[in-house]
Automatic annotation (TrEMBL):
<keyword id="KW-0175">Coiled coil</keyword>
<dbReference type="InterPro" id="IPR058620">
    <property type="entry name" value="YtrI_C"/>
</dbReference>
<feature type="domain" description="Sporulation membrane protein YtrI C-terminal">
    <location>
        <begin position="68"/>
        <end position="150"/>
    </location>
</feature>
<keyword id="KW-0732">Signal</keyword>
<feature type="signal peptide">
    <location>
        <begin position="1"/>
        <end position="20"/>
    </location>
</feature>
<dbReference type="Pfam" id="PF26347">
    <property type="entry name" value="YtrI_sporulation"/>
</dbReference>
<protein>
    <recommendedName>
        <fullName>Sporulation membrane protein YtrI C-terminal domain-containing protein</fullName>
    </recommendedName>
</protein>
<feature type="coiled-coil region">
    <location>
        <begin position="21"/>
        <end position="55"/>
    </location>
</feature>
Length: 164
């Protein structure tokens, strides 16, 4: 009787072990596969991070190196051709002079609203004719561009406008 009981217990343990192995084996296989996938993903992310670090180490801050001024004269037909060319040149020179302190500044640290404030509504005198400047667009990058319109004034001075 003892041998039968011992045999039944041994068969029960073996069949229980086989059943647990079958049930938990699939789960262990899934977890092992998921673990391997996560390891590969981690390696790929670490490689990507290393590339970003290398790029940042060689990255210099973007600074303003040039100013490009584009002037459009309003009521251009009323201004003689040579006066138009002279007005373009004088206005561009004044705007470059006003914005000269921006050269060498880091683009990321610059107050981008500063540029229109410096130029907008300023008056420029070109051979006795006054022009009021109006900023239309500013593109801030290494080569900063400012697009503006110059409106010739019929009066000698406009209220609230500063001269040069």
């Amino acid at each position: 009787m003892k041998a039968r009981l011992l045999a039944a217990m041994l068969i029960g343990m073996l069949s229980g072990g086989a059943l647990v192995n079958a049930l938990l084996g699939q789960q262990v296989d899934r977890l092992t596969l998921a673990n391997n996938e996560l390891k590969e993903e981690l390696l790929a992310t670490e490689r990507e991070l290393q590339q970003v670090k290398e790029n940042l180490a060689g990255h210099r801050p973007q600074t303003i190196t040039a100013l490009e001024v584009n002037v459009t004269l309003v009521q251009e037909k009323e201004i003689p051709g040579l006066d138009q060319a002279r007005a373009h040149l004088v206005i561009e020179n004044h705007v470059r002079e006003w914005l000269h302190p921006l050269l060498g500044q880091e683009v990321s640290r610059l107050d981008h609203l500063l540029i229109p404030r410096v130029v907008d509504r300023r008056q420029v005198d070109v051979d006795g004719r006054k022009y009021v400047l109006e900023v239309k667009l500013v593109v801030v990058s290494e080569r900063t561009m400012i697009y503006l319109e110059a409106l010739p004034q019929k009066n000698a001075s406009a209220p609230g406008m500063s001269n040069q």
